[in-house]
Specification:
Structural class: alpha+beta
Distance between the termini: 34 Å
Number of helices: 5
Number of strands: 5
CATH architecture: Orthogonal Bundle
Helix content: 40-55%
Number of domains: 1
CATH superfamily: Winged helix-like DNA-binding domain superfamily/Winged helix DNA-binding domain
Radius of gyration: 13 Å
CATH class: Mainly Alpha
């Protein structure tokens, strides 16, 4: 993995379908990506998910390390966005299909 703005994230060619699907198999992580898909980018602290901060951080780490989400630091916050272009280049249509199915 390569460092991007001090946060470990895989390069486009390192993203694997099995890791993406594993990351999206959890309902909390699906909730996270659906919110990001609607908003474009969302700070970690803006999610109203009732769980310990450490557990929520774990979910973001899984999404980031799988290549689904990109995180960048702005001051004290981590801003998250979907890696739509990278995922579309690697697995055409997969992210859109998953978001569409999760939005129902």
């Amino acid at each position: 993995m390569t460092k991007h703005t001090e946060i470990q994230q895989p390069l486009r060619d390192e993203i694997s379908l099995s890791k993406v699907l594993h990351a999206l198999s959890d309902p909390v992580r699906m909730e996270i990506i659906l919110k990001i898909a609607r908003a474009g980018q969302v700070a970690c602290g803006a999610f109203d998910i009732p769980m310990p901060k450490s557990t929520l951080s774990h979910h973001f780490k899984v999404l980031r390390e799988s290549g689904v989400v990109a995180s960048r630091r702005e001051g004290n916050e981590l801003i998250n966005s979907l890696r739509s272009e990278d995922l579309e280049a690697r697995f055409p249509g997969v992210l859109d299909a998953i978001i569409a199915a999760g939005s129902r």
